[in-house]
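hey m, so remember when u said the tokens were messed up on ur end? i reran from scratch. heres the input so u can diff it against urs
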Amino acid sequence: MAFMKQAPKRYFLELMGSMTLYGVVLWYSVTYVNAHAAPSFLKTFIALSPMLPVCLAALAIIRFYNRMDEMHRRAMLEAIALGAGFMAIVSIGLGFGTNASLPHLGIIWAWPLMGTGWGLAACYRALRWAVSETGWKKTLWNMMRIIAPVVVVTGLYVLAAPHLGWPRKWGFVVLVATGGFLAGQAYYLFVKHCGE
């Protein structure tokens, strides 16, 4: 059973490593492609290079899925199915919105929409499970312990950014909030959970 206890830690490291690599490769790719106007094989290769970390992330998800028991597999597949349904509804709505002069969103938004739906479905399922196991009071307390540090870190960033010359665009704020959430999850997995 020690293998099963290590599975979430390994998944976290594999997925976060591939996403960090994705961020670095994407930044380099966009910088290179914007700096070189002439089409070439190298430009095409570099433009497609962020797909390697995406494939590594998919491999991490598949490996974690293979380590799960049947109940967790079913929960994950249900969350993915609900995420796909969420993506379908939102993308169809946005498609109709272009008829009303709303901006057109490219296919690159498919994964963020799918991931958002997947995450919302997984959070809903986890909330239902936690309430049935520990009750509303303990569940709300645990949720506040997860949400409060993210809100505090993000709020401090938003307040300090103009004074320190840091970027304050919504993308950076979301990145800071995501980083705060992931730091909390890493703390739980690698520090607090080890002591239990």
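this time it looks ok to me. The chain has a mean pLDDT of 83. if urs says something different then somethings off w ur setup not the seq
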